[in-house]
Structure formats: structure tokens, C-alpha cells
Design goal:
The chain is α+β, with helices and mostly antiparallel strands and 206 residues long. Helices cover 50% and strands 7% of the residues.
Length: 206
């Protein structure tokens, strides 16, 4: 198997951190230079017509894209160190937490950065700086909501570390490009949680 990835981007990092947590180390990594537009080249379009990373190439030649789908497949193939729920009840609540993290935190962070950061201009044409700046308020709003959540529970989905924690952590690490940090915003529960996740070996998986 091969994982087509671009480690500095948040979605590939989510998959790589997920793999590190589960101890999966026998999948070959293929770097895709998105800054050089390698993801839009014809050979990569044959791998994923939507020109996004990550993509997991399975042993039978099929290509699986979208971070959550890749993690779902890996969870089934490598069930040890469960990160997505042991039964239907737990899976539903972990998926809810992960979807909230993806849609309400990672997405607006990505919009801010893609539309305001000069280094991302080649990837986002045209950029709309006003739109990007408008998303900043959403980032602060939902980061505050996650901070409130973490004042009541230890992890994003409840009592244990899950894929939802990976998504929020990768989102906050990406948010450094917009100079956002929980500590600077006075979100002390979110900052303490972030520091606990950063201390995990998987946080350094790149």
C-alpha cells in the first residue's frame, strides 16, 4: 500500500497521526508537492481526479481518498488501539465530535489561511481576503465552544483519546499560519488539552 501525502497540510497530517497512534508503519509514503502544483499534474489526476491529498492506494490498486474514509478503512484493517468507537453507540458520538471538529473548526481555519496567506495564493485563485478575514470570527467562536467543552470533559469525544482529538489538534497546528493560539485567546482548557496531545509521540508524526 501507498499513502500519497503532503505532511504540512492538515488533512494528510490527520491520517499520518492516526496511523502513528495505531502503530501502522508498513505503508509506503509518497510525498506530493502541492506547492509545486504536483497534485494537479496529469499523473496525479489519474490517482485522484479531485486533485486532493491524502490518497491511500490499496494493494488491489483501488484509490481511497478523503481523510475520514481512509481512517475508517485503516480502523477496520488494523483494529488495535481503537480510535473510532468500540460499538455503534460510541462510534456515533465519536463521529459527531469528529464532524464538528472538521466542519466548525478545521474548515474555517482553512478558509482564513487559504484566502489571506500570501504563501497559499498559488493554491487558491482567486483569493478573497475579506472572506478569509470574516472567517476569523468563526474560528474564535468555535474554539471558545471547544474550550467550554473541555472544561467539562477530558477529551473531545468524552473520556478517551479518539480521532476527534486528532482532527482538532491538526486544525490548531494549522491555525498557527493565521497566528491563532488558544493561549493568546485566553482559552486555557483548550490550550491545556492541546499541550497534552502535543506530548503524544503521534503528534510528531510527519
Amino acid at each position: 500500500m501507498k499513502l500519497y501525502t503532503s505532511p504540512r497540510a492538515p488533512n494528510p497530517r490527520r491520517v499520518m497521526m492516526f496511523m502513528a497512534e495505531k502503530g501502522i508503519n508498513d505503508i509506503a509514503m509518497v510525498a506530493v508537492d502541492i506547492n509545486a502544483q504536483a497534485h494537479k499534474a496529469e499523473d496525479f489526476r489519474a490517482i485522484n481526479p479531485l486533485t486532493t491529498v491524502p490518497v491511500l492506494e490499496l494493494d488491489d490498486g483501488r484509490m481511497l481518498s478523503e481523510s475520514r474514509a481512509i481512517c475508517t478503512w485503516l480502523e477496520g484493517r488494523f483494529p488495535d488501539c481503537n480510535l473510532m468507537g468500540a460499538d455503534a453507540d460510541e462510534r456515533a458520538f465519536i463521529e459527531m465530535a469528529d464532524r464538528r471538529a472538521e466542519w466548525y473548526l478545521l474548515m474555517p481555519i482553512a478558509q482564513v489561511i487559504r484566502h489571506t496567506h500570501p504563501g497559499l495564493a498559488p493554491l487558491e485563485q482567486p483569493q478573497f481576503p475579506d472572506y478569509g478575514q470574516a472567517q476569523t470570527a468563526k474560528v474564535r467562536d468555535y474554539a471558545t465552544r471547544f474550550d467550554n467543552l473541555l472544561q467539562r470533559q477530558e477529551w473531545m469525544a468524552g473520556a478517551r483519546f479518539t480521532i476527534a482529538d486528532i482532527t482538532v489538534f491538526c486544525a490548531l497546528e494549522f491555525a498557527r499560519l493565521m497566528k491563532f493560539s488558544p493561549k493568546a485567546e485566553g482559552l486555557l482548557a483548550l490550550q491545556a488539552w492541546r499541550d497534552r496531545v502535543a506530548a503524544r509521540p503521534s503528534a510528531s508524526a510527519m
